[in-house]
Amino acid sequence: MTTGEPGQPRTDRSPWNWLLVVPIVLPLLTFLFNADEPRVLGFPLFYWLQLAFIVVGVTCTTIVYRMTK
């Protein structure tokens, strides 16, 4: 694979790639959602926090994509 320039190897060693660890590790921290309260629109903490994890994952992925493009 090349970067578009002949003879230049592609490198995926950007420090921005470390940001992708956040959406992997964050849902593994069970103390964050080990409760029933607070409720948002009647939904317990676990459900709306899972949706928040999706937003964090999309945000991190978008930032890494744009910074390493």
TrEMBL record:
> What is any Pfam family matched here?
DUF3311
Superkingdom, natural source = Bacteria
Report TM segments: 16-33, 45-65
InterPro entries on file: DUF3311
Q: Does the keyword Membrane apply?
A: yes
Keywords for the protein's UniProt record, in alphabetical order? Membrane, Transmembrane, Transmembrane helix
Native organism is Nonomuraea deserti
Q: What is this protein called?
A: DUF3311 domain-containing protein
